[in-house]
Each structure stands twice: as C-alpha cells, then as structure tokens.
Amino acid sequence: MSPARRKADTASAHRKSPPAPDASAGESVVKRRKSDLRREAILKAATELFDRQGFGNTSLDDVAQAVGITREALYYYYRSRAEILLAIIGPQAEGLIGGLREVMATDVPAPEKLRLAIHNHLKRFDRYCLEMTISVRDGIASNGEAGAAMTRIWKEYERMWTALVEAGLREGLFAPVGDAKMVAFAILGMCNWLARWYNPRKPASIDQIIDTYFMLTSQGLLPRKLPVARPAAKRRKA
Known about the structure:
The chain is mostly helical. It has eleven helices and no strands. The protein is 71% helix and 0% strand. Helix 2 (23-53) packs across helix 7 (129-141), helix 6 runs antiparallel to helix 8 and helix 8 packs across helix 9. The protein is elongated, with a radius of gyration of 30 Å.
C-alpha cells in the first residue's frame, strides 16, 4: 500500500462519525408538550367553574372531574386551588399593570392618560372576559396565598391610578372634586363592576363602554349649563 493511501485510510478511521439522533430528547419534547396541554385544559376548566360557581364553591375534585383526571393526577400540575387561581388571574393583573405603566410613561396630557388608562382596563374584559371577571371578583376577595399575592399587585395598580389623578389635579386639568385616592378608587370601582354585568355577546360593545365611562369621568353627568330656574309667577289677588 502506498504511503499516501495508508495516510488517507488512517485519517478516515480517525474521522468521527456523526452522532446518532438522541431519542430521549425527542421524547422529552413530546412529554413537555403533553404536560403544557394538560395544564391548559386544567386552567380552562377551572376558569369556567370559578366563573359559574365561584372560587370558594369550587373544589379540586370539581376541577379534576371536569378535566377527566383524578385528584391525585391534578396535584402533579397544581398543588392547590390557590395556585390554580393565581395561574388564571396573575397574567391579567400583570397585563393591567404593564399597560398602565406604558400609559403613565406617555408624553400626553392627563385627560388623555385618563382615557388610555380606562381603555387599558376595560379592553381586557373584551379579550379575557372570564379571566378578568374572576380577577376582580375572586382574586381580590380570596384569602391565603392568592389573596396576599393579589393584594400586592392591586396596591401597585391603585398607586399608579392615584398618581395619574394627582398629576391631573396638580396641572389644573382635573376638577378638584375630592381626594385623589378617593377619585381613583371611584373610577376603578366603576370599571371593575363590569365583572357583574358585562357580557361580550350582548349589544353593548366594550368600545362603547370605554367611551361612555371616559365621558362620565371627564365631563360628569350633569350638563355644562344647567337651565336657569325661573321664579314662580305671583298670583294676583282676586
């Protein structure tokens, strides 16, 4: 054998063959996907149950039965009802805060920020009606782990709303109708009450509600110029 051929054969023998496909990696991806789908199914079933029955009246057994698994299997994904509740309402609360932070950072007058803040809050009812309903109804009222977490989130949200009203009052763009925190809480109370009556299948659209709420908060219910009451005509003596 020639030296050149021997050298080529030696190089070929030492050349590494491509690694074989890792079957375990593919199985891991499939298993993770199945787990994600099961979590989505659990949250979907729990959302519908919490909306229909209330968080306090829904048990883990109810959720497991709705999904078609055992309670023991449910524990593999969520340890408690509170953990399920936080998984449902956490993204909505974080979305509200993130949206309001963007509103507060915009370089627009306070009245426009007020309109954008109302839009940020109410528009989520259009996209995530059940989740938002549970957030403002059960998330705030619940105790324990879920209640403590939601209290921290809502405190931050309320603080930003109060700062928005304070800025409008300070700039003379809002009428001094009362304490800034009280005004902020009044607006939030009005917005949150949608959880009691809003139905996306009914004629009133969320955009109509946003416009109505903004007009109500920015201009009030009474007309700008009230009709002047005329004094009653005196009766002539007969």
